[in-house]
């Protein structure tokens, strides 16, 4: 599904965000990215969904060489990657339904399909009765559920989740993790950056630890492994 071969990412200010990273992530895996702030986790994920390109090395996602994509191919690759952010990034003037529908509209999905698919996905994330609420009328956990619905509505093969529970209370965080676990069970590969030690240690999945731009640990059914 995802492969990095000797990937380096150096920003214009000279910061080496990633240094010689090589890793393979298989289809249907659930992978935690852990490590200190500034270790390179966000850069790792931005490279996967092509917000950044590698300075050196090769990245393939679903068989596409990310660093050498032609501009016309970028939207096609991105529609197969759902992204979930810590701060939700919902459009404040749109309802839950409209926020999710927007993700389908940008890829020019037929209106008939949008009308069918959006309610199905909002029901999946537990918001069947709140599809017409604005983000301001939803709790933080509900807003994150809308963000997850938006990320999965186009049936992506990969979901990138950047601290999806970072702004949520513990109980809501577990609810979101159970939802992501269900999405993974249905066949979607998930890469999740997190500082939540309890979640990583309780839901034993593959753990990739990054420090100073290097992968320092890669364990199946791993633990968080850092003092908070």
TrEMBL record:
Tell me yes or no: is Lipid metabolism among this UniProt entry's keywords. Answer: no
Q: Which biological process annotations from GO are given for this protein? A: cell division
Span of domain ABC transporter: 2-228
Q: How does it sit in the membrane?
A: Peripheral membrane protein
Task: Give the record's keywords alphabetically.
Answer: ATP-binding, Cell cycle, Cell division, Cell membrane, Membrane, Nucleotide-binding
Q: Name one Pfam family in it.
A: ABC_tran
* PROSITE patterns assigned: ABC_TRANSPORTER_1, ABC_TRANSPORTER_2
Q: Which superkingdom is the protein from? A: Bacteria
The record's subcellular location field reads: Cell membrane
Q: Does the keyword NAD apply?
A: no
Q: A GO molecular-function term, please?
A: ATP binding
Q: InterPro entries of this UniProt entry?
A: AAA+_ATPase, ABC_transporter-like_ATP-bd, ABC_transporter-like_CS, ABC_transpr_LolD-like, Cell_div_FtsE, P-loop_NTPase
Q: Which SUPFAM superfamilies match?
A: P-loop containing nucleoside triphosphate hydrolases
Function noted in UniProt: Part of the ABC transporter FtsEX involved in cellular division.
**Subunit structure as annotated in this protein's UniProt entry:** Homodimer. Forms a membrane-associated complex with FtsX.
The protein's name is Cell division ATP-binding protein FtsE
Q: Which organism is it from?
A: Paenibacillus enshidis
């Amino acid at each position: 599904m995802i492969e990095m071969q000797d990937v380096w990412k150096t920003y214009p200010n000279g910061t080496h965000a990633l240094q010689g990273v090589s890793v393979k992530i298989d289809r249907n895996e659930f992978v935690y990215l852990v490590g200190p702030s500034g270790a390179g986790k966000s850069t790792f994920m931005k490279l996967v969904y092509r917000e950044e390109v590698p300075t050196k090395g090769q990245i393939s996602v679903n068989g596409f060489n990310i660093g050498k994509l032609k501009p016309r191919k970028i939207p096609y690759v991105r529609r197969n990657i759902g992204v979930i952010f810590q701060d939700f990034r919902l459009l404040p003037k749109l309802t839950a339904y409209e926020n999710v529908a927007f993700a389908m509209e940008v890829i020019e999905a037929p209106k008939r399909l949008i009308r069918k698919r959006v309610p199905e996905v909002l029901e999946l994330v537990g918001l069947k009765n709140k599809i017409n609420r604005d983000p301001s009328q939803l709790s933080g956990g509900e807003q994150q559920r809308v963000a997850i619905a938006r990320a999965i509505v186009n049936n992506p093969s990969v979901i990138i989740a950047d601290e999806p529970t970072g702004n949520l209370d513990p109980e809501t965080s577990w609810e979101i993790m159970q939802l992501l676990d269900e999405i993974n069970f249905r066949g979607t590969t998930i890469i999740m950056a997190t500082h939540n030690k309890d979640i990583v240690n309780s839901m034993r999945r593959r753990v990739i630890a990054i420090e100073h731009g290097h992968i320092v640990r890669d364990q199946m059914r791993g633990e968080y492994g850092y003092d908070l």
